[in-house]
């Protein structure tokens, strides 16, 4: 251990975990993004990590939750809820009681509505800042965390956030380690009852397995048959681009550089 | 001289009279050239079949029956297509539909345009009480065609607080817009960052339950808002049909983009200046990542090499200096100059770059397929007739080695000047 990290008081981290669903077989499993969140928490130096789940309890969900225990935990706190309940009040109360420094959640659940709203609602309710699509935690000092946020196209952005905060992780976070069978069996699920609030709207909606979305047709809005034919038979779009012939290499390079600058791709 | 068209009845009469000795001359003078069709003296349309068509590039007579050729001979300046679309002004909207486009790269993305199409469907559903589409955009932009995308009112916020990653300040601005105008609908793109995040924050703040992942919308008189939507749930494995709530986050291709009308895109301003809030999240700027480590399919800026690259050392150097991810055509890969995972095209990777620079690539269809979704394509090639030039937005004809060298020199110069200035 390095001396500095030993000096700083331990970081209290809670990871919210849920029961996932395999995209092909539909079997329950540990949710992928949540497992990434657990992995991220494990990689933090000097952190005390707790796992928290709220939901219905049955045999298959227990098996899925034990998958998280197999990542090196001896216990998981479980707030029992009836089927189809809104887990927000229970989670908010539990987090209020334990008041961790950092809460890590997945971006979206793999079952149920999966709207990805829960972290935002929790943040609003607790009054904490929220950072989405986290890739790494760089450092935590004096109650301020420096984070790396994953942007589209493999880019990263550095942010600093005042703790306590909620962060969500998506597929850009480090891949989770495998779940070990022994620790998964030995770990305990500490069940308790939380406040229950029913989700009445969900019950009214019509839910069915996803249909494939229709492919968008290339609709050509032209007045004459000839234009429509030309559009349908066109080789590729474009055309009308600028072509520079008979220029010196420097002039050509200048034109390219101007375009690159306009598009903001040069660092 | 005024540009009012003046009519000369005598000349028109001669133009109608095919047998008049000055007929041909007058036709040319009136700008009708050798007209093949004209109204005769008794109102009958007269045709001269010998005059139909034009002589093609190989000396063969070609007949174009679309009528464009004839129109072009008319000599009148044709108005550009954009202006011909009817302009729709909604002075007194019955309600407002607020849209917050992502504006990735400072322009309306395809997703944004689809969303605006959806907003127009909501706004124009009842012709008697038409709504107006308000777009809220943050930070500097490069877009010039807001009206053609279907925007009636534009709220452009450009203060330093809301530029960069400032979700809390942007949320504050949206809440002010909500208080000022109370739009009937809020539509945001359900994209990774930007709309997806801001929409959820807005919903949490306004305490509304939003619909996320919407991909279909149907009118339904029984629903509270008059619409029923279908949304994806549970990681894309469920379809949820529910009444459309006030705040909706829609997927790409949720509706057809606006294509037939123009709108005013009039500037709008918030009634009060933005409150200065203390942000708990601070943006420390983008981190430079090694472009070589970015997956080709994700890369934003690709410098791609083909058979026309002769100086490979120079190519790698240019890619490194420009901060571009390297790509290659199949020939460059087969010849062993580039790794297999760098191949772009039908049998390689389908790239999504915003800027794609093709160096010495001829543009075979297998290659062009792979760059279909690229925004700006730049071609450097010796052959001005090749297919890549037709696809490119900017093409420079010349030797790839020299042009890359010149580019490297220019960039190095610019960087040194900047360093000296700093
Ligand atoms: C089944 C199948 C699948 C294929 N899949 C792919 C694929 O996925 N991706 C792919 O890329 N190809 C693919 N191909 C190959 C494709 O058809 C072409 O052969 C290939 O893309 C051509 O590569 P190129 O443009 O680099 O080479 P060329 O066609 O040889 O073009 C070289 C270009 O460089 C120019 N040039 C030459 N010297 C210079 C110079 N000094 N400076 C500037 N310009 C110069 C020339 O004018 C020419 O335009 C596939 C082919 C088949 C049959």
What does this structure look like?
The complex is a heterodimer of chains A (267) and B (422). Chain A has helices at 3-7, 32-42, 59-69, 88-98, 118-126, 181-186, 200-204, 225-233, 249-262, and strands at 11-16, 19-21, 28-30, 47-55, 75-80, 85-86, 102-106, 130-141, 144-150, 156-162, 165-169, 188-193, 197-198, 206-209, 242-244. In chain A, a hairpin with a 6-residue loop joins strand 2 and strand 3 (28-30). Helices cover 30% and strands 30% of the residues of chain A. By secondary structure, chain A is of the alpha/beta class. Chain A is extended and about 75 Å long. Chain B has 422 residues and is an alpha/beta fold. In chain B, the strands form 5 sheets. Chain B has a 9-stranded mixed beta sheet with strand order 12-11-10-13-9-6-7-8-15, with helices on both faces. In chain B, strands 18-17-19-20-21 form a 5-stranded parallel beta sheet. The model of chain B is unreliable at 69-82 (pLDDT under 50). The interface between A and B is large, with 85 and 95 residues. Strand 10 (156-162) of chain A pairs antiparallel with strand 16 (281-287) of chain B. The complex binds flavin-adenine dinucleotide. Flavin-adenine dinucleotide binds next to helix 9, helix 10 and strand 20 of chain B.
Count of DSSP helices of chain B? 12
Point out poorly predicted stretches of chain A: 1-7
Largest sheet, strands/sense/barrel of chain A: 9 strands, mixed
Bound small molecules, which ones? flavin-adenine dinucleotide
Helix content of chain B: 25-40%
- Approximately how much beta-strand content do the residues of chain A carry? 25-35%
Whole-number tally of structural domains of chain B: 3
What's the CATH H-level homologous superfamily of the largest domain in chain B? HUPs
In whole angstroms, the N-to-C terminal distance of chain A is: 37 Å
The CATH architecture designation of the largest domain in chain B is 3-Layer(aba) Sandwich
Mean pLDDT of chain B: 84
Using only C-alpha atoms, the radius of gyration of chain A works out to 25 Å
| Oligomerization | heterodimer
Tell me the strand order in the biggest sheet of chain A.
10-9-8-11-7-1-4-5-12
Q: Major sheet of chain B: size, sense and barrel closure?
A: 9 strands, mixed
Number of helices of chain A: 9
């Amino acid at each position: 251990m390095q001396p500095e990290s030993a000096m700083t008081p331990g970081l209290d981290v809670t990871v919210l975990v849920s029961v996932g669903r395999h995209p092909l077989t539909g079997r329950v499993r540990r949710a992928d993004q949540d497992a990434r969140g657990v992995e991220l928490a494990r990689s933090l130096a000097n952190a005390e990590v707790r796992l928290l789940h709220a939901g219905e309890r049955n045999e298959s969900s227990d098996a899925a939750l034990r998958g998280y225990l197999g990542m090196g935990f001896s216990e998981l706190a479980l707030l029992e809820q009836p089927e189809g309940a809104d887990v927000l009040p229970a989670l908010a109360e539990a987090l209020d009681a334990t008041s961790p420094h950092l809460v890590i959640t997945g971006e979206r659940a793999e079952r149920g509505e999966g709207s990805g709203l829960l972290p935002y609602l929790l943040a609003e309710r607790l009054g904490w800042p929220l950072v989405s699509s986290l890739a790494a935690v760089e450092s935590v000092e004096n109650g301020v965390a420096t984070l790396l946020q994953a942007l589209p196209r493999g880019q990263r952005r550095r942010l600093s956030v005042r703790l306590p905060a909620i962060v969500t992780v998506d597929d850009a976070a480090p891949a989770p380690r495998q779940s070990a069978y022994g620790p998964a069996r030995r770990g305990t699920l500490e069940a308790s009852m939380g406040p229950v609030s029913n989700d009445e709207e969900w019950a009214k909606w019509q839910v069915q397995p996803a249909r494939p979305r229709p492919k968008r047709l290339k609709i050509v809005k032209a007045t004459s048959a000839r234009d429509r034919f030309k559009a349908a038979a066109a080789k590729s779009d474009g055309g009308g681009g600028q072509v520079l012939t008979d220029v010196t290499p420097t002039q050509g390079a200048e034109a390219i550089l101007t375009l690159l600058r306009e598009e903001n791709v040069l660092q | 001289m005024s540009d009012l068209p003046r009519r000369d009845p005598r000349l028109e009469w001669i133009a109608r009279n095919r047998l008049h000795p000055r007929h041909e001359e007058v036709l040319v003078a009136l700008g009708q050239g050798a007209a093949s069709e004209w109204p005769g003296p008794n109102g009958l349309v007269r045709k001269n079949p010998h005059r139909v068509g034009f002589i093609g590039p190989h000396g063969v007579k070609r007949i174009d029956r679309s009528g464009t050729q004839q129109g072009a001979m008319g000599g009148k300046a044709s108005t550009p297509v954009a202006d011909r679309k009817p302009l729709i002004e909604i002075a007194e909207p019955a309600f407002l539909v607020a849209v917050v486009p992502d504006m990735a790269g400072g322009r309306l993305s395809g997703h944004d345009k689809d969303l605006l199409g959806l907003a127009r469907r909501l706004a124009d559903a009842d012709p008697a009480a038409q709504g107006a589409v308000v777009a809220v955009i943050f930070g500097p932009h490069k877009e010039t065609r807001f009206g053609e995308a279907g925007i009636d009112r534009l709220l452009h916020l450009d203060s330093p607080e809301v530029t960069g990653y400032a979700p809390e300040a942007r949320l504050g601005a949206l809440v002010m817009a909500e208080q000022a105008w109370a739009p009937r609908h809020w539509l945001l793109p359900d994209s990774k960052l930007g709309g997806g995040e801001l929409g959820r924050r807005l919903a949490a703040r306004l305490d509304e339950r939003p619909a996320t992942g919407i991909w279909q919308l149907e009118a339904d008189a029984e629903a509270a808002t008059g619409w029923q939507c279908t949304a994806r749930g549970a990681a894309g494995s469920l379809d949820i049909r529910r009444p459309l709530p006030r705040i909706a986050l829609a997927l790409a291709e949720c509706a057809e983009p606006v294509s037939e009308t123009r709108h005013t895109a009039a500037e709008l301003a918030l009634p009060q200046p933005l409150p200065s809030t203390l942000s708990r999240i601070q943006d420390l700027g983008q981190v430079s990542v090694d472009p070589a480590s970015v997956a080709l399919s994700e890369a934003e800026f690709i410098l791609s090499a083909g058979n026309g690259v002769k100086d490979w050392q120079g190519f790698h150097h240019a890619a490194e200096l420009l901060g571009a991810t390297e790509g290659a055509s199949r020939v460059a890969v087969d010849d062993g100059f580039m790794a297999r995972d760098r191949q772009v095209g039908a049998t390689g990777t389908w790239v999504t770059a915003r800027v794609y620079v093709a160096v010495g690539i001829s543009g075979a269809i297998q290659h062009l397929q792979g760059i279909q979704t690229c925004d700006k394509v730049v071609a450097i090639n010796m052959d001005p007739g090749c297919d890549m030039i037709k696809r490119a937005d900017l093409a420079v004809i010349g030797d790839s080695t020299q042009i890359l060298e010149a580019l490297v020199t220019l960039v190095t110069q610019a960087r040194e000047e900047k360093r000296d200035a700093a």
